Amino acid sequence: MSKRNFNIINRTLYSVLETKTYGDIVFGCPPGIVKDFLKVKKSLPLKYVIPSQTFCNNINNFDFEFIVYSVLFTKAPGSTVSVYCLPEQEKRCRVILNETLFGPKFDQLLDSQSNKLLNEKCLNEDQRKKLQTLISKNIAKNKKISILFDNLLSAHSSESKTKKHIKQFIEDKILSKTPSIANTKITNLSNKLTKIYIQCAQLQKEFNLFSLAKERNRNSFISKIIKFHHIKKTGVHIINGLKDKRKKIKIQEVESSVFKVIEGEEESYTIKLNSINSSKKKHRKKIFKTPFFGVTFIGVGSGFSVDKQNSSLIVWAEDKGILIDIIADNNLILSSYGINNNAINHVFLTHIHSDHDAGAIENLLEEKKTYLITSRIIYESFLRKAQALTSLSKNNIEKFVKLIEVIPKQKIKIPGFTNTFFEFDYSLHSIPTGRCKITYSKGNTKKIISHSGDTKYDIPKIDTWFDKGSFTQNRKNDLLGFIWDADLIIHDVGGGILHTNYESLLHLDKKTKQKTVLVHQNEKPQTKSQFRYAIDGETISLIK
Fold it and tell me: Contact 28/22 with Cβ under 8 angstroms?
């Protein structure tokens, strides 16, 4: 390998081997790698070598999500990423991408939503297993009930009519054929199954609005984007030349995260990922004054905005903090702002895209306990992703990740708070995603902070989707409402297919615009904006 034809660039937790003959080859894949290439205005490489140990200094080195998103949304049609990895790493990668690109499968949605029902005290173990089988097979895979639900939505049937017909179907076509389940001591079983089915079927209809592939075609879709090359038993990868396939470069992992790069027999180069400078910048300690009720923006950007941290914020209430999403390097960023991490015990996880949950994975690897406020569906999706990323068992993960379950439209008092309440609902996104209202209420004092989560707020689109039978009337009303009756409204403005465009908010009245602060910023702020753009590190106090 001639030195004139190659160059090695070492970055934090990854290296790039630049070659003319073989293209650029990246070793490792940590969070934020896409932003690094955007910063230097270089094309994202399409070849990645994954170390056998996928974590370095408790940082995930297996973060392919935004590589895939970049290929999907910015590369020429038909572009593929080549990944050189172990066979089990391919399996793990497919699990992660199934969750992050498409969301849970329908049987997984039902299983998560049925958790409370399956844990009814009146059920013995045998009954529990039979009920779970009934839900995952007789209901989840029943095409007739799916067609019935679609027809009811398309006809814009009322909520009561939809419930009536779905319940009748479950009683006549499913429970009547399974007397051992029908005769359990669960009260109102058909009502409960009906509610669960409608909730999950509605969510699935929404995910399908953005879906890149049908459920049965997910893995084949992934295979069109990523070409997996398995490491040989000798630990060697062979990469052919771009133009001359006879030319070959040999890459061998000689020990954990240490690679030898050989062309021919003359020269060898060594890449040591663990020796790459990954030290964290030390910041001069700042004094941070916590508002009694307000927010601090940890980051306000998107996964592609090079000059901003990914969107995350702290809602302060009663001198304690609730993180909304937890991004990579969270603890370091908090320290740079002068924020004591010990004052923050809860995280509202909106969804499991890596620009929102990377910090939860870091906490897990550091064996730091994280209390997740989220729905059962989002939580179970996070568990599947975390298992695939870390190879830890569900039981080991749940030693450090504790769920505070929230249910749509049910207000709860947050544990550890006296007068602070949390209300959850699903936003409109490609995978299960939450939004919230956090209320402080004591005596005559009442203030509300709302957060849209990642969402596609677009009235004409939502109207069109409703006309085509994608929502019930109530769900349409919820999508267009829920967050606006707040004193401070934090809203996604990421644009594109999955996020709200700035223009979609311009119809709001002047009073609402004055209360709205924009996050998940993908573009530069609009000149003479009618809205306030949040700034990294900024604090807004509603009660000082």
Answer: no
CB-CB contact of 388 with 92 (8 Å): yes
pTM above 0.85, yes or no: yes
- Cβ–Cβ < 8 Å for 207, 102: yes
Q: Which helix (H) or strand (E) holds 274?
A: none
Tokens 């190659």: give the residue. 6
- The fold of the 293-543 domain, in CATH, is Metallo-beta-lactamase; Chain A (3.60.15)
**What is the rounded CA–CA span in Å between residue 261 and residue 406?**
51
Helix (H/G/I), strand (E/B), else coil: 309: coil
Q: How far is CA 62 from the centre of its chain?
A: 15
Torsion angle defined by CA atoms of residues 535, 536, 537 and 539, in that order, rounded to the nearest 10 degrees: 30
- Structure confidence at residue 56 (pLDDT): 76
Q: What's the pLDDT at 266?
A: 64
CA distance 239 to 195: 53
Do the beta carbons of residue 434 and residue 453 sit within 8 Å? yes
Q: What is the residue extent of each domain of the chain?
A: 3-86+231-275, 106-208, 293-543
State pLDDT tens for residues 398-430. Answer: 999 999 999 999 999 999 999 999 999 999 999
> Over the range 3-32, which residues count as b (16 or more CB within 10 Å of their CB) and which as e?
eeebeeeebbbbbbbebebbebbbbbbbbb
Percent of the chain with pLDDT over 90: 83
Other C-beta atoms closer than 10 Å to the C-beta of 416 total: 12
CA distance 448 to 440: 6
Q: Nearest to residue 114, comparing CAs of 174, 57, 186?
A: 186
Q: How do residues 97-145 score in pLDDT, each as one tens digit?
A: 999 999 999 999 999 999 999 999 999 999 999 999 999 999 999 999 9
For the record, the structure tokens of 233 come out as: 């038993």
Helix axes 218-225, 65-74, angle to 10 degrees: 80
Q: Is the dihedral of CA 220, 226, 227, 232 positive or negative?
A: negative
Q: What's the token pair of residue 528?
A: 């003479």
Nearest to 202 by CA among 137, 109, 99: 109
Element (H, E) at 480: helix 473-480
Distance of CA 452 to CAs 321, 355, 427, Å? 19, 16, 7
Q: Are 413 and 451 in contact (CB under 8 A)?
A: no
Nearest residue to 256 (alpha-carbon basis) of 84, 50, 89: 50
Judged against a pLDDT cut of 80, whether residue 358 lies above it is answered with yes
Residue-wise burial string across 348-378, b where 16 or more C-beta atoms lie within 10 A, e elsewhere: bbbbbbbbbbbbbbbbbbeeeebbbbbbbbb
List alpha helices for 9-64, DSSP H.
33-39
SS3 labels along 90-147 = HHHHHHHHHHHHHCCCHHHHHHHHCHHHHCCCCCCHHHHHHHHHHHHHHHCCCHHHHH
User: Tell me: the pLDDT tens digits for 246-276?
Assistant: 899 999 998 888 999 998 876 678 898 866 5
